[in-house]
Amino acid sequence: MKRSRALGAAAAAAAAIGLTLLTGCGGDAAATVPDGWATLDTRSLSVGYPKDKGYREQPAADRSKNNAAVALKEEAWGLRAGMVSVQLDFAEGVGDAEEAAAAAGAGIGLGATRKDTSDVRLAGAESARQARRIDYEFTSSGKERTPAKGTRMTGVVVAGVDSKDVPFAVRINAVKGSLSAADLDSFVESITVK
Questions:
Q1: Nearest of 113, 123, 128 to residue 47 by alpha carbon
Q2: Which pTM does this prediction carry?
Q3: Fewer CB within 10 Å, N- or C-terminus of the chain?
Q4: 24 - beta bridge partners?
Q5: Element (H, E) at 172
Q6: Tens digit of each residue's pLDDT (9 = 90 or more) over 1-24
C-alpha cells in the first residue's frame, strides 16, 4: 500500500513537471521591454522604444504611409534626432528572413557603412522568430528636419517574415553616441513577432 502511494506521488510529480515544461517552452512568449520604454504595436509585431530618452509615438496622420508605426525623438525646433520605424509588406517575393534582410538592406542608402550583419532569434510566433540584424552608420543629409548635414548617425535594421508570411523591417536611426550598444541590443530584444 505504501509503495503504490509512493509510486502514485512520483507519477503525479512527474506529470506536474511535464506540464510545467510544456507550458514553459514554445517560443510564443512576448519579449521583455526595458523599464522606461514604451511599445509600438502593429499587426505583424511589436517593438519597444526608449521613451525615457525622449522618443514619442508619432500619430498615424503624421507619419509616412510606408510606415506602420513610428516613434521619434525630436529636439528643439522639431529636429529629428532619432527614429524607430516599422515597415510591413515592403517588398514582393520575400519568403524568409534572408530575403527580407536583402530587400531592407537595399533601402539603407548609398554612403552608408555596414558594420555587422547577424542572424537573430526574436520572441513570438515560432514560425517567424528567425530574423537578420544589420548594423550600419551613415551621415545625415540635414534635410527633412534631420540633424545638421555631416552628423554621424547609427542605424540598426531587423528584417524577417511574420507568421502570415508578411515581410517586416524594423529600423532605429539615432545620432551616433546617443544610444548605447546595450540600448541597441535592447531594441532588438524587445521585438515580438506575431
A1: 123
A2: 0.83
A3: N
A4: none
A5: strand 167-175
A6: 444 444 444 444 444 434 333 333
State residue 60 phi and psi, 5-degree precision: -55, -35
What is d(CA 34, CA 40) in angstroms, rounded to the nearest whole number? Answer: 13
pLDDT digits (tens, 9 = 90+) for 35-89: 999 999 999 999 999 999 999 999 999 999 999 999 999 987 778 999 999 999 9
Contact 35, 53 (CB under 8 A): no
Rg (CA), the chain: 21
Instruction: Check residue 71 and report its DSSP letter.
Output: E
In whole angstroms, what is the distance from residue 169 CA to residue 184 CA?
Answer: 15
What is the rounded distance in angstroms from the CA atom of residue 82 to the CA atom of residue 55?
8
- Taking only the tens place, the pLDDT of each residue in 161-193 is 999 999 999 999 999 999 999 999 999 999 999
The edge-to-edge listing of strands for the beta sheet with 69-74 is: 55-57, 69-74, 80-88, 167-175, 152-161, 130-139, 113-121
- DSSP codes, 110-163: TT-EEEEEEEEE-EE-GGG-EEEEEEEEEE----TTPSPTT-EEEEEEEEEE-T
Say how far apart CA 112 and CA 131 lie, in whole Å: 21
**Cell numbers standing for residue 58:** 508619432
Q: How many CB atoms lie within 10 A of CB 2?
A: 6
Contact present, 86 and 56 (Cβ < 8 Å)? no
